[in-house]
Amino acid sequence: MRFLVFVRRQNGRRDSSRGQLPETLPCAPEVPQLDPATRAASEPHPRRVGEANRLLCQGMSGSSRVRSRSNTAHTPGSPQAVAFAGLAAAFEVYVDVNWSRHFREVGGLPHVKVRKAVIPAAGLGTRFLPASKAQPKEMVPVVDKPAIQYVVEEAARAGLQDILIVIGRGKYAIEDHFDRSWELEGLLNDKGDDERLDEVRSISDMADIHYIRQKMPLGLGHAVGVAEQHVGDEPFAVLLGDDLIGEQETLLGDMVDAFNRHQTSVVAAMEVEKSQISAYGVVAPGEEVEPGLFQLTDIIEKPEPDEAPSNLAVIGRYVLHPDIFAALRVTEPGAKNEIQLSDALKRLVDEPDGTGVLAHRFTGKRYDVGEKNGYLRATVELAAAREDMGPEFVEFLRQFVTGMDRSEDGP
Q1: 224 and 294, same structural domain?
Q2: What are the tens digits of pLDDT across the range 130-173?
């Protein structure tokens, strides 16, 4: 039910107390207490407690006129007015508490915390042809889960429950995978296969997943820009589906924590061989802000090995300040007529009064499943680490390698 509350102040006073929510409201001794759940939820946000008290007091004293959605006026001070005012007060506290979960005050300014993630998944997957010709490359299974499920699980582990997947035409299988499958669930339920039933249901319950279409494959920067309306004026993570991070790693959570501390964009960077450097965006690290976290002084997209400022390559994890959208809007298309995210990040680095960019040095497990050797390595290592299949699979690998060595040695 929705309410319109028209308030005119009379003798009621605004409670500006910064302490705990009082057991009873100060306007009249007979005013009922707020229920414990509302009181507990309100305690961290006392600035809203005064508003809730005021609405309740005015409902009791007759200084409010409350109308329901049906435009029915209730007599000031009547039980109906008290009920509507009380619900309106509780609603205000509820809205403020839920909104304020993602904000805290630092120096009087809002300190915004990361709660959203964007997963670009609109690419054509040409590196993985012919497997990606008729199915999204993100749906190619790594052991027994599609690659994109590992990425969504990583975002959920980092506490990011609002996920936007940027898809292109022909990618409906991604939407179907994260949706409920009533027929399959009914079949598993009838068979009494509770283990698989729980596993299937957990896929659609792990996060709130939304979709938007990138109409043309115009580069990673363009795909991120497509997410602007969903993200709004909030920081957000970007996770590329080609990069799988080891399930025991805390990379994304560490990057989110770094953003929350410094309120500036953070990119993940990893040392790569010189021969591979031209396949990545490469960063020039500056001052070390804290262990493993560096201020960026430059970022270059796919440089020649001899021109690279370092061997630190940007991998597919970013936590971005919303200023990136303004930078993307003025970033010109580069090679292949694509808008590169690294070019927009360079604008943030070069902006004299901007937020800058930090690089988080990552030394853990990472797999590039967008290319075939990386995909095979990921499949083998992840399968070997599984408790349910690892021991038997590792024994097979030992026998296989031993057989290969014997065949090379000859009779």
Answers
A1: yes
A2: 888 888 889 999 999 999 999 999 999 999 999 999 998 888 99
For residue 385, the tally of other CB atoms under 10 A from its CB is 16
* Residues facing residue 104 across a β-bridge: 111
- For CA atoms 201, 207, 211, 216, the dihedral sign is negative
DSSP state letter for 255: H
φ, ψ of residue 164 to 5 degrees: the values are -110, 125
Residue positions counted in the chain? 411
* Closest to 372 in 3D by CA, of 11, 106, 131: 131
Q: Two tokens at 197?
A: 């039933």
Task: Please indicate, yes or no, whether residues 277 and 154 belong to a single structural domain of this protein.
Answer: yes
Find the mean pLDDT for residues 319-329.
95
Q: Examine the domain organization and report whether 48 and 77 are in the same domain.
A: yes
Cα Rg, the chain, nearest whole Å: 27
The residues pairing with 25 across neighbouring beta strands, listed in sequence order, are none
Query: SS3 sequence, 340-368?
Result: CHHHHHHHHHHCCCCCCEEEEECCCCEEE
**pTM (2 d.p.):** 0.71
Tell me the per-residue pLDDT of 264-295, one tens digit each, with 9 for 90 and over.
999 999 999 888 888 888 999 899 999 999 99
Partners of residue 118 on adjacent β-strands: 164, 238
- Do 350 and 397 lie in one domain? The reply is no
Q: How far is 229 from 232, CA to CA, in rounded Å?
A: 5
Residues 246 and 139 in one domain: yes
Query: Are 269 and 360 a contacting pair, CB within 8 Å?
Result: yes
**Range(s) of the domain holding residue 33:** 3-101
CB 125, CB 174: distance < 8 Å: no
What's the CA gap between 214 and 232, in Å, rounded?
17
Return d(Cα 335, Cα 212) in angstroms, integer. 25
| Region 177-203 average pLDDT | 93
Instruction: Quote the number of domains for the chain.
Output: 3
Start-to-end CA distance of the chain, whole Å, equals: 83
Cβ neighbours around 83 below 10 Å, total: 13
Element (H, E) at 289: strand 281-290
How many alpha carbons lie under 13 Å from residue 338 in its C-beta half-sphere?
A: 15
Give the bridge partners for 64, in sequence order. Answer: 7
Q: Is the Cα dihedral 150, 153, 154, 160 positive or negative? A: positive
